[in-house]
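User: My collaborator sent over this chain with a note saying "see what the structure looks like." That's all I know about it. Can you take a look?
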Amino acid sequence: MTVPVYKKKDFVSDQVVRWCPGCGDYSILSQVQSTFAGLGVLRENFAVISGIGCSSRFPYYMETYGFHTIHGRAPAFASGLKATRPELSVWVISGDGDMLSIGGNHIIHALRRNFDINVLLFNNRIYGLTKGQYSPTSEVGKKTKSTPFGSIDQPFNPIQLALGAGGTLIARAIDVDAKHLQSMLETSHAHKGTGFIEIYQNCNIFNDGAFDEYRGKGEREENALYLEHGKPMVWGKTVRKGLILEGTTFKVVELGEAYSEDDCCIHDEGNYIQAQLLSQINGNGFPVPLGVMYREQRPTYETAFQDQVTAARGKLGNGDLEALVKGGDTWRVS
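Assistant: Without extra context I'll predict from the sequence alone. Here is the result:
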């Protein structure tokens, strides 16, 4: 079937977008709509699945199929949909509170199973919809309505969590960096397996400025490291800097007389140990890494599932639900 030539407006629903003015979600929504238009997928073959939270209003604003599910369970719903309708392009939209708190169990199993789905984690380091409590990614010492003396929780590192759970495509982007975010969305779509993208997203009401050093174009050039496979890890416009490996840790060096780009580490998306090191740096003189941190290819769950069903039918024939229910280990209570 020929796919129509879509434009962004074809993915804009008739619903009024109800986010606070200035919220970073607007930018993400715009980039997703623009990206979907160019993916070569029939509009009716998209499914946008969300949980609970500000970000989880997303399906209402997309002119696609969608499902606004329950708190933390979006990965589970998406997994079931992909297992039974593998031809669909399935996208999970969730926030740091929804996915990493009550939904923590569901996302780790979706990642390890490697469904061919796309997971967008909107990380604003706060609970926005419920009016500003600290979240699983809030920094130690964060003062909120639920932590008036400062949070004493050690925050989750979403990239490390995804790596530990066995994610096969793990990346990071920023809400207002439109070109780069679209590139990451396209990369996730092209990847056969679970694409996990942490998106730094500003909540201008309850946690404004959490990512200011990376959101402004000038600040981003000085503080963000854009990862490119096979290229040296360098950044900075005013002062060029790079990462070198010193023992088993990264070290920041200034490029000039003592060091050049040739001395810097080369990014390798397939290097798991390097990805672990990258996941640990952010601030304290280090840049925030943006882009694909890690990528590998392995069989997807839905492909193995469909192969298993086909093999079982070839050996045993089509099943009989009534016979299954009434046969085997059944009993009657009189």
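A starting point for your reply to your collaborator: The chain has twelve helices and eleven strands.
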